[in-house]
Design brief:
Layout (H helix, E strand, L loop, with lengths): L5 E12 L2 E12 L3 E5 L6 H9 L5 E9 L2 E2 L5 H7 L1 E4 L6 E5 H15 L9 H13 L10 E2 L5 H15 L3 E5 L7 H14 L5 E5 L5 H4 L4 E6 L2 E6 L1 H10 L2 H6 L1
Helix pairs in contact: 5-6
């Protein structure tokens, strides 16, 4: 019998932004080696879910808890959660004019080393060897790293950059918020290959998506449907295919 080891546990999580309740007694456990897909209509709470785990300051947690590797992270700032091993790929990655991708990637990589009390080596051969290895996995040319962060990037390039950051940080828990949005089929395959090559039995991934097509390439252990701030149904990969055929109204009929 395989023992399941939880990485993330959401316990009766109730969250507001302003006067609006956006998550309602939400419960979820994500174990090592699992990929969870979160689906649901616009405004259902999917992106809120990801931001709350990452520690976005706009949200107030009224009750419940978030455990990462068995310990509460409610009091931790976003950077502290990142250093523990939580990564969030943004739905709309921001541009940072005047900062090269190389500078940014080296900064976040060294920040992680500092948090782990490891030696930081600026412009080190080890860093560039690691970076070039990840570039090849994502089919990214080397000149990509000398461009300003996301400035003038296509949608596909921005999403590849998010996956590149995830790989460099080697995060235990990666939350990918609509990483497939705006991608053509070739870019989707490359992104999916990157995710699959990164995944291993000691990690977990949460995919937030509207579409089943991503799940043809990255096979989820579980699919959850969020509606009105609650998980209303959980299933395997077949649930995503049913949603593709029947839409979310079908769930209203059976709940």
């Amino acid at each position: 019998m395989i023992t399941k080891v939880p990485i993330l546990e959401l316990k009766n999580l109730k969250v507001t932004i302003g006067d609006k309740e956006v998550l309602k007694d939400l419960n979820l456990t994500v174990n090592k080696g699992e990929i969870h897909a979160i689906m649901g209509p616009n405004g259902s709470g999917k992106s809120t879910f990801s931001k709350v785990i990452a520690g976005h300051p706009s949200y107030d947690i009224l009750s419940g808890d978030i455990l990462f590797n068995g310990k509460s992270i409610l009091s931790l700032e976003p950077d502290q959660r990142s250093h523990l091993g939580i990564f969030l790929a943004f739905q709309y990655p921001i541009e940072i004019p005047g900062v090269s991708n190389e500078e940014f990637l080296e900064l976040i990589y060294n920040s992680k080393l500092e948090a782990e009390n490891k030696e930081v080596k600026t412009l080190s051969t080890d860093f560039f060897n690691l970076l070039n290895e990840k570039l090849k996995l994502l089919d990214i040319s080397e000149d990509f790293i000398w461009r300003n962060v996301n400035e003038g990037f296509s949608g596909g390039e921005k999403k590849r950059n998010e996956i590149l950051q995830m790989m460099l940080l080697d995060s235990e828990l990666s939350i990918l918020d609509e990483i497939d949005s705006g991608l053509d089929i070739d870019a989707l395959k490359i992104i999916s290959n990157g995710i699959n090559s990164f995944m291993n039995p000691d990690k977990a991934i949460i995919l937030i998506t509207h579409y089943q097509r991503l799940l043809d390439y990255v096979k989820p252990t579980y699919v959850h449907v969020i509606q009105n701030g609650k998980i209303i149904k959980t299933g395997n990969a077949d649930l995503a295919k049913e949603l593709e055929l029947k839409g979310y109204d079908w769930l209203k009929e059976i709940n």
